[in-house]
Design a protein that fits this description.
The protein is α/β, with parallel strands linked by helices and 298 residues long. It contains ten helices and eight strands. It is globular, with a radius of gyration of 20 Å. It binds pyridoxal-5'-phosphate. Pyridoxal-5'-phosphate binds next to loops.
């Protein structure tokens, strides 16, 4: 448990003890590049990675194809492919964490497919069990059948959960949920941008981004500095909840929109309008910060 949290940048930043054998690299963030230059940010990170790989001491590279809890950060197209190809040149396996964005959410069954590549190991969870506890690590047997890999046996292979998982996969395929998610994501984004105009809040939206039904609304103090507006995010989430829309914020100030893939078009449009209204009301001071403080983490 300690080790699992220790490889997660979000948890380490929040205070979990970092695994001493893990090195963290920046994630390419086109809106706020760590090197101040969105045109070179991906290449700079790949160069940093390559310098580590030549040392022959890296066992594996773990990456989320979209950094979700970090703020729904979508890397530049081709970054994941370049990363996987670089690792392959050095014989280092890549683990793609698709726990949050996999299984059709981003418009493909796996998000890595957008870059036309396949990692060595994929991790799945959340939607896989359709509400029942189920996760999976999919990879080559020379890695997964190694002795130290056998753990978590109490819950492994539970017949009820695995039956649910098989049913989930059947529904995703039968109802063509990946391509549906792609289309619905576009619908949400355009409905939200229109609603933001109507509510007069375009100047506090730094960016609406995402793929398919993984969408982030980046709330900022102003469009010039693009400083994240954490307080507005907290108040908005609370007001949206009062108005009947449940969402959360990630990366400090980014509203995370990840509805069920079975959401209807009208629900999505209504959700976009309610969120825009919640932002407007939160900004206008209509949400009592004291009330929100009672909710830890909001
Ligand atoms: C991207 C990502 N990976 C892994 C996990 C952890 O999954 P689990 O709770 O199944 O260990 C989470 C949980 O939120 C997640 O968001």
């Amino acid at each position: 448990m300690g080790i699992a949290l220790g490889v997660s940048g979000v948890h380490v930043e929040a205070g979990a003890i970092a695994d001493p054998d893990v090195l963290f690299l920046p994630f390419p963030n086109p809106l706020r590049p760590h090197n101040g230059d969105s045109t070179t940010v991906a290449q700079e990170i790949l160069t940093m990675l390559e310098a580590l790989l030549v040392g022959d001491e890296i066992a594996a590279v773990i990456i989320e194809p979209i950094q979700s809890d970090g703020g729904i950060i979508v890397p530049p197209a081709g970054f994941l492919a370049d990363l996987i190809n670089t690792c392959r040149l050095h014989g280092v396996p890549v683990i793609c964490d698709e726990v949050k964005v996999g299984l059709g959410r981003t418009g493909e069954l796996f998000d890595f497919q957008h870059d036309g590549v396949c990692p060595d190991i994929v991790t799945l969870g959340k939607a896989l069990g359709g509400g029942l506890p189920l996760s999976a690590a999919i990879g080559p047997d020379h890695i997964l059948n190694a002795n130290p890999g056998s753990a978590l046996l109490t819950t492994a292979g539970n017949p009820v959960c695995t039956a649910a998982g098989r049913a989930v996969l059947r529904v995703i395929k039968r109802e063509n949920l990946p391509s549906r998610s792609g289309a619905l994501g576009e619908l949400f984004q355009s409905a939200f941008v229109s609603a933001a105009e109507v509510e007069g809040i375009a100047d506090c939206i730094g960016e609406v981004r995402g793929r398919g039904l993984t969408i982030g609304i980046d709330l900022v103090t102003d469009l010039e500095s693009l400083t994240g507006n954490r307080e507005l995010a907290r108040l908005t989430v609370y007001r949206a909840y009062e108005l009947g829309v449940v969402c959360y914020y990630v990366g400090g100030h980014v509203l995370e929109i990840t509805p069920a893939l079975t959401v209807t078009e009208s629900e999505l449009v209504m959700g976009a309008q309610v969120l825009a209204r919640a932002i407007a009301q939160a900004r206008a001071g209509e949400v009592d910060p004291e009330k929100v403080r009672e909710f830890a983490g909001w």
